[in-house]
# Entry
Amino acid sequence: MLPVIINGRHIETRQGATILETCHAAGIPIPTLCHDPRLKPAGLCRLCVVELKGHAPFVSACTTTVSGGMHIETHSPGVERARRQVLLLLAHDFPKHAIADARQKPFLTLLKQYGINGGCSGFCCAPSDEQKLSLAPAGTLIDLSHPYIRVDMSRCALCFKCARVCDEVQGQNVWRAWSRGAATHLLPDAETLRASSCVSCGACVDVCPTGALEDKSVLARGAPVKWTRTVCPYCGVGCEISAGTRDGKITQIKPAAAAPVNKGHLCAKGRYAFDFVSARDRIVDPMIREEGRWRKVSWAEAIRCVAERLLGIIEDFGPDAVGMLGSARATNEENYLTQKFARVVLGTNNVDCCARVCHAPSAAALGTVFGTGAATSSFDDIERAATIVVIGCNPTENHPVIGARIKQAARRGANLIVIDPRTIELARLARLHLQLHPGTNIPLLNAIAQVVVAERWFDAEAVRDRVDGFDAFTRFIADFTPENAEAISGVPAAQIHSAAELIARHGPVLFFHGLGVTEHTQGTQGVMCIANLALLTGNVGKRGAGVNPLRGQNNVQGAAHMGCDPNRLTGSVKLDEARERFESLWNSPVPHARGLNALEMIDAADAGKLRALWSIGYDVALTNPNANVTRAALAKLELVIVQDLFMNELANEFAHVFLPACSSFEKDGTFMNSERRVQRVRKVIEPLGHSQPDSQILCAVAEAMGFKEQFNLYCAEQIWNEVRRVWPAGGGISYARLDHAGLQWPCPTGAHPGTEILHAAENGPRFELQQVPYEESAERVNEEFPFLLTTGRCLHLFNANTMTGRTPNRGLHSGDFLEISVTDADRLYIADGDHVSVRSRYGESVLRARRTDTVRPGELFATFHTAETLLNSVVGAGCDDIAGTPEYKVAAVHVGQF
Amino acid sequence: MNAAIPNASAGVEPKPTAAELASFHRLDGDIAGKTCRGLGCFVGRHLDPSRWSQALAQGTRIHCLGECFASPAVANGTIRPRIQARCPEPILLRRMERGSTRDFAEYARGGGGKVLERAFAEAPLKIIDELEISGLRGRGGAGFLTGRKWRATANASAPEKYVVANADEGDPGAYGDRFIIEEDPFALIEAMVLAGYAIGARRGVIYLRAEYPLARAIIEQALIDARSGGLLGERVLGGGFAFDIELVVGRGGYICGEETALINALEGRRPEPRIRPPYMSERGLFGCPTLVNNVETLVNVPWIVEHGGAAYRDIGFSESRGTKLVSLNSLFHRPGLYEVEFGVTVRHIVEDIGGGLRTGKIRGVLIGGPLAGIVPPHLLGTPFGFEELRSIGACVGHGGIVAFDGNTSIAQIMHQVFSFGAFESCGKCVPCRLATRCIESVFQKIAEQGAANFWDEVECAELIETLKRTSFCGHGAGLAEFAESVLRYYAEELEPCFR
# Structure
């Protein structure tokens, strides 16, 4: 510690701290406009200047590191006078009319504090004619083009924070400085912000001290009067947000301060796409369909109807004629209740969730190899990793906050390896981009392992201490040479060799993978191949290393983990291993019959064996593959209960009862993110209309079906405490602790700090290398279907678009598109924006073409968001034979002008 | 050659586009025939009023062409100043005094390269030892001890280091570096090789301002000749030391003379000054330890290597050792570039050497550009030295000597200097970006309307104080120092300007 004297006080500070940090820690307020703890100090507003004894000019507190014995005066008359002068200079340029709607902004607060009225300082420093000329473009950029952000650069104080945060946090560099001196001004990298490379993360708005950049929602609906901390409803990163409300409505969302995952950052979805909550077509009354027409009913009638019809079907066909689908959008508590309802009330194991169609293979593979079906490390390992391998995921669009962190890591010098058929944004920053053909993960990943073994680059110590089956693996892997892999995957052998070298010799290595690995017929095996690489190179159980699936939805990790899985109970334990414990805790038998997963339920419906389906927040009609077959099966069901916010495709075409649920903004609970972190979801607004939290609906139906004793659980914390009793690894995660910060399981006791890195124990369990042979996908190109299609999401839209489609994000994105290489497009006379038909042996879809260099000739990429496109009618019936996950990522198709 | 400057688009870190950078810089294309708007031309405007009018009307605003000896100046590059050593032991002008050495053969005949052989025969650090003994201080303005800078850069361990010659001589009134490059280019090259050898760098960069097209042509040719002559390349003088130099030409931006801004310019960024630390000796060009010295500073080094630090130390006085180039503006009877020994009085320079003004009485002298105080006539007896000038609020700076006569009022000087200061401010920090403009406007008002009001005076005083104490770099602070000295020494004359 360093002793310094500030304003006569003796203060101890840490070595390397700046004067500003020291003062803030000591509770001494220092005014500043250009400082943000996330950004490199700039020292340009000069408001934080302080006096140093024995040093004539003032020094800026943000850029000056303390040295022992410094005498610092932070508020001497001279310093305060200088600050006032600096503010006067800025105030002179601040438009008078802008003062009213910017009163809360830091700049205006400072003006007030220093007794300055903006816009009228009494100076006579009008710019010279020459300066006026060059000032013109700066002073006048008023740009309303962006759906969320109002740009009015006449208010800009040139703190450069927008440009710096865009560069240093988001890595986008939209804001550019032009000219110099008094004519200096900032402009987006295109004529308007809408047309620029802006990714709408809102970071520039958050840091702007003057309101030059402001959320349109605040201008239209007023600044929030109340803030509630909760978790973003979109992807599995689990960013914490601060939801601002006014008159019972959400008017603004900002990143929560000091959130461990997002660290003050958000993306286009979490920051801005919240208007779906109050969308006009939100269903807020229970409804029953009679003779094809929907009729609004009371909750009592709806619940009676559901209970009676379910009891009737169980009586006629047995409990296994009913299936339940939990929701990755619902809380842990609600998913726990969903599976408990299926098993206790209905008496069936037919319960699943959408993890089936995304990361079930990750859970299966990681469970098989490591014993825990979840990420082995944490997002904070991004900053600790020397090498980051991104396989089959596109974080800058689908997990943007993590994408931004990976980008910054690459800029700081981490080696980035991207394995993807497309030249995604990260591929452009990568040391290596292994651009493989869709469906060839296994031979490629095996070949990397082969090089590691053949070159003897494996971590001998780690292999000796932690790994089983090395010798057998060595024999098995020998044939997977880079040359063979090149022939199959199209990735040059030399690149495979380089990748192996980076992974083996430039650790720690952090692996991220996404659905580009799991949504294949060999999805589970693909994840096992990644685990093999981590095991061989000693990249498990230590900081900066690990195998991490990037989960797609906010609570998909939690939904499955809570037991929405036909074979597993809460805590992801196998039915047979934990049956007795659950039976005694639930005071009810747990059914023995093997349950159906989400896709088997559709098959059973088609076969007439499944009679009823209760789907909570999961639109299987739109998102299941082989949509034409799925729809035919759904039509055969006797009872379809849809519990959702909106009349989705499943409800619209097939449902008999609609139960209006409410969004995560309208209830309490917890979500579990990709890195096993349980975080509190807090009620921001009251449920709209008659909508109810899923938990209340489930408990009411259970009660109506005679299970009041087991479902007398109407408060989220009460449900969670039951979860803690049945799931030992979560036992220490109490609401009281979650009020301070999220916790990563395992966290068995109240004193346990949570677990950042799994399998870290030195003498921990040994893990077995998996021998994964390659089986070629049935989706192969031929004369009729000469293209390979992969599908995915884009930055602005989310999954089935039920949420984003009801927000101005629509204005940032023009709907689903098909990426086609320029070579192919030229050959087929396809222009940008043309409607093209994509046809497979399963079905056809029409969408707009986008000519691009991100896919290779012979390969295509399409987004699957909208019901109009129904791209899933093109995706086939293939699925992973271990986890049952559909092969969304490979389809042989024909493309033509529509 | 091995490119010292990596491709600016390489790497993942985004840089400004060419258009964005062009909007910062003010020169694009040929400057031939363009007239200069610098301070030297301003105070000499009555010598050729039409040329000065042309400078004001001209679209491209140029400060300065390095022709203050013939101001108001027009870019043609052919006229030469008087070049004369006015000291017992010439160091900088020892070759130039006898004429130019642009030809490599001539340079070699005159003993060129000998000093390198001598240096290579000894350990690199020996050069630094001698430099430290010599007491040589930076001639670019700050007067930092050169040996200490070299030592710090030599001590930094890094696979790559750079030697950067700051040839962005932008201070109005100064033209010494220009003529060193034009008349004795190999002296600079030789000095940079010595620097590279001393600090362990293989790469050098000369950042030359765009306003010196002839200097550019000459140094370009000299670099080619030096390479073929073995002075540069993989094996300098056939030995084991590899060193090469790349020339980078600026595009009009006074601030690029500030060493951190210069490094930013070389890296393809906006040339704004950086926060120090880290110092250039730790992390400079492309993150590598970098030695940045101005041209004149470097050119002292071969002499020191040849004669030893102690011999150098014997020249000069007090804390200012050695000699200094001074460049006198056109109002003098004998304008030109002179080498003087530290310790002579300013009066000796302006009266004995310059012969006084040919257009009337001296009303004041600006030494070392406008980022320092003005020397009023009654202080001309001040000895020419770093601390001695500092004590009266002035500065050695670059050694440009701009004297003005009765044709220019002090308010006009203030307006000219702040107009220059505001135009050349990078705009990064608030006080420099805005206060310079405000002060310029006040004095513009006085110039146009004869006077400003009492509040302007009060505000001006406040703004100058703020500029001085809060500016990010020396640009704002230096302008404030200039303004302060004007207010101090010319209060009487200024009084009627504020009513």
Q: What stands out?
A: The radius of gyration of chain B is 22 Å.
